[in-house]
Amino acid sequence: MRGSSLNRRIPTDSDGHYCLPNEPSKYSQYESVAVIVVATGDFELYHELVSELRERDVNFTTIEPAEELPDRADVVLTGADDPVAVAESDTGVPIIEASPGSPRLAVDEALAALRGHDGRTVVGIDPGDVPGIAVLVGERVVATFQVSPEDVAEIVHEETADAPNPVVRIGDGARLIGARIIDDIEDVPIELVDETGTTPYLGAGVRGVADIIAAVNIARMEGEPVESREITPTEGELHRIQQRSREQSPENREIDAELARRVAVGELTIEEALVTHRKKRE
Q1: Considering the chain, what is the average pLDDT of its residues?
Q2: In terms of domains, do 114 and 125 share one?
Q3: The CATH number of the domain where 193 resides is what?
């Protein structure tokens, strides 16, 4: 669920604003990120819009209503009484008036504007213990997430619900987790992508975004269509599951190989396997 899992967004500056490519920043690799601009002097409306955008992991920045729009602005959210510096007809940037008490409607309209003119919606997934997810519309990154494997399918379904002809592209690493994610996703075409070379080298001071960047790279690569992925767990993979069960067990207990195999193929979670293991010992 959003808000209950670890969601990591595109890096922000010291004020919490998203880094824009025309601003000096070590995050210049995000130059294709779509940006919503919040421009309102109404404190209540500002708080509501910013909270809604953060809750939904949407990339945004904020300006004063009378300021010039940033070069990379894609949609503007403003209030009815705010004097936005330029008209939509002057820039081609949609300007959406939001009302206090209805931030979700305004954000929905802004997201629809982003998705409406940029192309196909592609969700890239870098599978792992905490998968990275990137949502692209055309070449623009419009949302990023980093959540537990169990929450990936819900995000995919929410992000593709109103999109025409969406596709999910998932990396072929972390085989067991990836296979479970594929099984959880319904009614969206899935492609399996060779993820070799998708995780970049991160320089000094850059942390926590490698899986997100890998997900963006995966989304931009065509893969082989799949509906499921049959995996026979290796001894090493089973051993890692057993180690994780010991780490999660209050009694420092390790599940047996058969329970680890059931976890590997998605029949049980580690928590359920630990409960079964305790019952066997009683």
Answers
A1: 81
A2: no
A3: 3.30.420.140
Would you say residue 19 has pLDDT above 70? no
Query: Cα(first)–Cα(last) distance of the chain, in Å?
Result: 34
Strands of the chain, DSSP E: 35-39, 60-63, 73-79, 95-98, 121-126, 132-137, 140-146, 167-171, 190-193, 224-226
pLDDT digits (tens, 9 = 90+) for 129-188: 899 999 998 878 888 999 999 999 999 999 898 787 899 999 999 898 999 999 999 999
**Residue 88 pLDDT class (50, 70, 90 cuts):** low
Global pTM?
0.59
Structural domain range at position 72: 34-118
Token readout for 139 is: 């070449």
Q: Using CA atoms of 241, 157, 215, 106 in order, give the dihedral in degrees to the nearest 10.
A: -140
By three-state DSSP, how is residue 64 classified? coil
Domain boundary among 196, 222, 248: 222
Domains of the chain: total: 3
Pick from 57, 87, 118: which residue ends a domain?
A: 118
Claim to verify: residue 215 and residue 267 sit in the same structural domain: no
